Structure of Aspartate/glutamate racemase family protein:
Amino acid sequence: MRILVANVNTTESMTEAIAASARSVASPGTEIVGITPRFGADSCEGNFESYLAAIAVMDAILAYPEPYDAVIQAGYGEHGREGLQELLDVPVVDITEAAASTAMYLGHKFSVVTTLDRTVPLIEDRLKLAGLDQRCASVRASGLGVLELESDPVRAVEAIVEQSRRAVDDDHAEVICLGCGGMAELEEQVRAATGVPIVDGVRSAVTIAEGIIRMGLSTSKVRTYAKPREKKIIGWPFKV
C-alpha cells in the first residue's frame, strides 16, 4: 500500500523528518510518500496559516500523479481534514485525532504538549470537534516556534520535557501527546523524563491508516463527506 503523508508547511526538512518518522512504524510493503505544499507558510502557528495550509494541502494531494491508498494530514490542530475527505475516495487521517484516540487506549486522561501558546485554542477546538476533548486533561505550550524544534533541539527537549512533567504532576495526565508533527524524534527523551506513554501523531496516524486500509474501509460518502456538488469554481484546482 502507498500512504501520502502531507506536511502542512513548506519546510522540506520537516517533511523529510515527518516521512522518516512515519516509515519507522510502517509495515513491510507500505510505501510512505512525504508531500510538501508548493505554497504557504514555512511553519503553521495560527488561523491564517492553518487555513492557507488547508488549501495548499488539498492542492498538493490533487496534484500527486500516482495511485495511493490513504492520506495523512500531518499538522497538529490544523484545518482541512474535512475538505480532503470530501475530495478523496481513500481514508484521510489527521494526526491530532490519531494521537488523541490512541492515547485514550493507554490512560484515563491525556495532555497535549505543543509549540506556541497561540496554537492551544486551535488544538482544543480540533479535539472538541472530534469529540475527544472530554479525555483531555490539558493542552500545554512549550513556548517554542515550530522551526525552533530543528534549529535549537536542546532547548526544545528541555521545554517539552518541562511542560510534560507539569501535565503529569499538575494536570494528572497519564499519557502525553506530542502536539506537533516535528516532535516525533523527542518521544524517547520525554518518556524517560516522565515515565508515561508518549504518543506521536504521525506514527499513530500511520498505524490507523494501515488498519483502515486492511479492513477495506474508507470515508462514508452518504452525507457529510459526499463529493462536492458540480458547480463552477473559478481558479480551482491550482494544479491545472
Notes: The CA atoms of residues 109 and 135 lie 5 Å apart. DSSP finds nine helices and eight strands in the chain.
